[in-house]
Backbone:
């Protein structure tokens, strides 16, 4: 979704992450980011959210769990 001054992006990521010295682990997440163009024409992030994808049971396609 976009207009002249607003853009909304939704995408999926798969990363390996370590939090506070813990062992690294895989994380899959959906992201939703909202950008707005300022008066100078520069795109700036205004809002961002990441939601972890968790599986109950067997993940689709037999893929390994995150």
Residues:
């Amino acid at each position: 979704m976009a207009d002249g001054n607003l853009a909304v992006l939704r995408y999926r990521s798969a990363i390996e992450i370590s939090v506070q010295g813990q062992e690294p682990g895989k994380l899959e997440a959906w992201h939703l980011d909202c950008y707005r163009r300022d008066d100078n024409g520069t795109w700036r992030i205004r809002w961002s959210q990441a939601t972890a994808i968790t599986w109950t049971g067997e993940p689709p396609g037999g893929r390994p769990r995150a």
The longest strand covers residues 25-37. The chain is about 0% helix and 55% strand. The chain has one domain: 6-56.
